[in-house]
């Protein structure tokens, strides 16, 4: 639901935060910040080791008050109240907004479930018995291993059993920010004891050359016993529309050609907190020419401002205010309307000013966190749901890509993997040429064509392709920077420019192949054909 507008009034309140963000360095007492819609400084709560003197202060040790375990801010820092009921995702000059309230925009079927694939690309990465496969997801499996869980998941408000691809992405109502009921995009998966993710990309470019605002709502939770596993979420802006951009994880090195990634997980300030409801902006990833060239705070100059309150099924509202040099990240607490600065950084030096926005749900071997041999004996569920709403950005309104998704492999079989469940293989082995079809292609006005794919191939190998039985073309796999990242068994994300003149109106066939199949894990998936139409 379109819910938000920011009041012009800067409230003299301490920001609600797990760790307590200090005032922005460039904010003055009038409430102006470089982000435009300022936060000001709240003097209600002063930092301290015990009780703070302001009305809203709960400084230092154990948090308390109406916001439960997340607590109130222990330091000074202002918040701005957002108001539910605003149009255009709360943006003053919206270029894109999706609130999932238009029933006609719900298009069941396709790769993205209920999503309108004209506006969004939905991609998956999973690894159970092989790459590009995924188990059906359960709220709770029948065996003893999963008898005790934290963050016990529901999907569209209900417990679930054996949700497979095609059932795992739905739009349904739920409580939003400010507890206003709205339609939300629910997506879920089981990580099967390995790394996996879901990725939702807006097919309209975001131009932030003069500074832009990106907004979204999500229940920004963390697993309660975060010990390096579990679930988290990320937001990426990439110059190319290649699917599933990422940094480094088991089975994955899908570095974007040029990109900016924001990871939300409790690996800094919140990791030291006794509260289970503290989450934070953990790392910024910067990529250039298919290599991660900078991780912040890896550079040592990333300010730690504290976290925000996050809970399952209670949405936070986020704003990312970004330019090629500067980024600010603002958040509300779970279910609340108190928007405050949670992180900022100056000196990005991004090599691009226009890109595609990806919202991503990541997991790694979640049930390992909390197992008896590791810690508490109350472990995280291997399946989890995130809920997304009010996705938008401002700036110039640019045309959507005209995109066509290739069908999934959709090879199903029943397996016994901790419980009887269905395994779906949705990618394709490259042991032989793989041909996919794109139906209903409209070439009118197209000036550029892209094949966007994920592939398990390392540098210096190559991916060959033919369009409609024509000439063979070769795409060399980029150099990802080091031997570990160039390993064959890791996922890549590439966007390949192809000749528009080889395409035809209507049905098109593209054949992919590799000249040197090794009998290993070489596969391809999440394939689409996208046309650029000015």
Class based on secondary structure composition and strand pairing: mainly beta
Question: Beta-sheet strand percentage?
Answer: 35-45%
Low-confidence stretches: 1-17, 19-76, 142-146
Span between termini: 30 Å
CATH topology of the largest domain: Jelly Rolls
Q: What count of helical segments does DSSP give?
A: 0
Please tell me the total number of domains.
2
CATH architecture of the largest domain: Sandwich
Range of helix content: under 10%
Number of strands: 34
Q: Averaged pLDDT, please?
A: 83
CATH class of the largest domain: Mainly Beta
Query: What's the overall geometry?
Result: globular
Question: How big is the Rg?
Answer: 23 Å
Let me know the largest β-sheet.
Answer: 10 strands, antiparallel
Can you characterise this structure?
- The chain is mainly beta.
- It has two domains: 96-145 and 153-396, Jelly Rolls, CATH 2.60.120; 427-532, Jelly Rolls (Sandwich), CATH 2.60.120.1200.
- It has strands at residues 5-6, 79-83, 94-98, 120-125, 133-135, 149-150, 169-175, 181-190, 195-202, 206-207, 212-218, 230-238, 258-264, 278-279, 281-288, 291-296, 308-309, 316-322, 326-331, 338-346, 354-364, 379-380, 383-394, 402-405, 411-416, 420-425, 428-429, 434-441, 448-455, 462-467, 472-476, 492-498, 506-513, 523-532.
- Strands 1, 2, 3, 7, 8, 11, 18, 19, 20 and 23 form a ten-stranded antiparallel beta sheet that branches. Strands 4, 9, 10, 12, 13, 15, 16 and 21 form an eight-stranded antiparallel beta sheet that branches. Strands 24, 27, 29, 32 and 34 form a five-stranded antiparallel beta sheet that branches.
- The model is unreliable at 1-17, 19-76 and 142-146 (pLDDT under 50).
């Amino acid at each position: 639901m379109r819910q938000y507008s920011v009041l012009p009034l800067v409230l003299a309140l301490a920001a609600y935060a797990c760790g307590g963000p200090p005032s922005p360095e460039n904010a003055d007492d009038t409430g102006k910040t470089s982000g435009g819609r300022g936060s000001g400084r709240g003097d209600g709560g002063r930092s301290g080791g015990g009780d703070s003197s302001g009305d809203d202060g709960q400084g230092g040790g154990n948090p308390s008050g109406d916001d439960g375990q997340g607590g109130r801010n222990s330091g000074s820092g202002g918040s701005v109240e957002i108001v539910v009921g605003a149009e255009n995702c709360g943006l003053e000059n919206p270029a894109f907004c999706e609130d999932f309230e238009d029933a006609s925009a719900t298009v069941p079927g396709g790769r993205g479930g209920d999503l309108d694939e004209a506006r969004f690309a939905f991609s998956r990465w999973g690894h159970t018995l092989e790459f590009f496969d995924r188990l059906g997801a359960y709220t709770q499996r029948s065996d003893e291993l999963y008898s005790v869980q934290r963050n016990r998941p529901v999907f569209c408000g209900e417990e679930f059993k054996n949700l497979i691809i095609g059932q795992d992405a739905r739009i349904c109502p739920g409580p939003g920010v400010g507890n206003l009921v709205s339609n939300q995009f629910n997506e879920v998966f089981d990580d099967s004891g390995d790394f996996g993710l879901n990725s939702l990309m807006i097919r309209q470019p975001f131009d932030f050359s003069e500074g832009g605002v990106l907004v979204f709502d999500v229940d920004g939770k963390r697993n309660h016993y975060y010990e390096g596993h579990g679930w988290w979420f990320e937001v990426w802006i990439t110059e190319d529309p290649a699917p599933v951009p990422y940094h480094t994880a088991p089975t994955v090195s899908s570095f974007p050609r040029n990109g900016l990634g924001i990871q939300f997980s409790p690996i800094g300030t919140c990791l030291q907190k006794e509260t289970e409801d503290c989450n934070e902006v953990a790392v910024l990833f910067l990529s250039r020419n298919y290599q991660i060239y900078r991780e912040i705070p890896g550079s040592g100059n990333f300010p730690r401002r504290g976290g925000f309150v996050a809970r399952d099924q209670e949405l936070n509202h986020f704003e990312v205010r970004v330019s090629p040099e500067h980024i600010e990240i603002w958040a509300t607490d779970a279910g609340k309307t108190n928007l405050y600065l949670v992180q900022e950084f100056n000196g990005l030096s991004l090599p691009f000013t226009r890109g595609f926005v990806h919202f991503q749900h990541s997991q790694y071997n979640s049930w390992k966190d909390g197992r008896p041999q590791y810690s508490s004996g109350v472990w995280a569920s291997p399946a989890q749901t995130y809920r997304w709403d009010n996705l938008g950005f401002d700036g110039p309104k640019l045309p959507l890509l005209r995109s066509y998704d290739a069908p999934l492999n959709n090879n199903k079989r029943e397996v016994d993997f901790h419980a009887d469940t269905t395994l779906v293989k949705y990618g394709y082995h490259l042991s032989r040429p793989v041909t996919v079809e794109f139906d209903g292609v409209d070439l009118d006005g197209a000036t550029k064509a892209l094949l966007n794919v994920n592939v398990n191939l390392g540098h210096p190998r190559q991916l060959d392709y033919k369009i409609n039985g024509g000439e063979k073309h070769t795409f060399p796999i980029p150099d990802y920077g080091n031997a570990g990242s160039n390993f064959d068994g890791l996922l890549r994300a590439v966007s390949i420019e192809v000749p528009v003149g080889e395409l035809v109106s209507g049905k098109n066939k593209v054949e992919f192949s590799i000249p040197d199949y090794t009998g290993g894990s070489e596969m391809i998936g999440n394939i689409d054909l996208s046309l650029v139409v000015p």
